[in-house]
Amino acid sequence: MYFLTRKSNDSIELASVSRQVVHENAPLTGTLAVLLKGPTKNEKRSSIISLIPEGTKLEDVYVKGDTAFISFNQEFRYNDYGVPGLKAQLKQVIYTATEFSNIGKVQILIDGKKIDYLAQEGVYVGAPLSRSSF
After folding, report:
1. In whole angstroms, what is the distance from residue 98 CA to residue 96 CA?
2. Is residue 63 within 8 Å of 106, Cβ to Cβ?
3. Helix 27-37 with 82-97: angle, nearest 10 deg
4. Longest Cα–Cα distance in the chain
5. From first to last of its 134 residues, what are the pLDDT tens digits of the chain?
6. What is the domain count for the chain?
7. Angle at Cα 66 formed by Cα 60 and Cα 72, nearest 5°?
8. 123 DSSP β-pair partners
9. Range of 101's domain?
């Protein structure tokens, strides 16, 4: 899964983290649930952070073809760090989901519905996103 790391020049980069994820029969759902819990204490000591807004909840996950449809609650729409924060949280989700070999793209949903933009800043999520979207 992917979190972020803060560099000495205050830039933020993706950071891949390996974790054991326990799931019954939905590995993507289980992985995303762990992602939303954020970094562990040890990871935080290593400057690993998450910019997924606190209070974000995973509502639903399903896959059609090579696209994962991931629904979050309204909290996911707003980030205290503006456009850079929104893009960073999207990268965390997109890169984590596309680690699965059958997932090439992710459609972000809010409360089960497709929306065009996150926040007033207007980060577009109206079509499926892939790693190349960033």
Report:
1. 6
2. no
3. 150
4. 42
5. 999 998 777 788 999 999 888 767 789 999 999 999 999 999 999 899 999 999 999 999 999 999 999 999 999 999 998 899 999 999 999 999 999 999 999 999 999 999 999 987 789 999 999 999 98
6. 1
7. 20
8. 118
9. 2-133
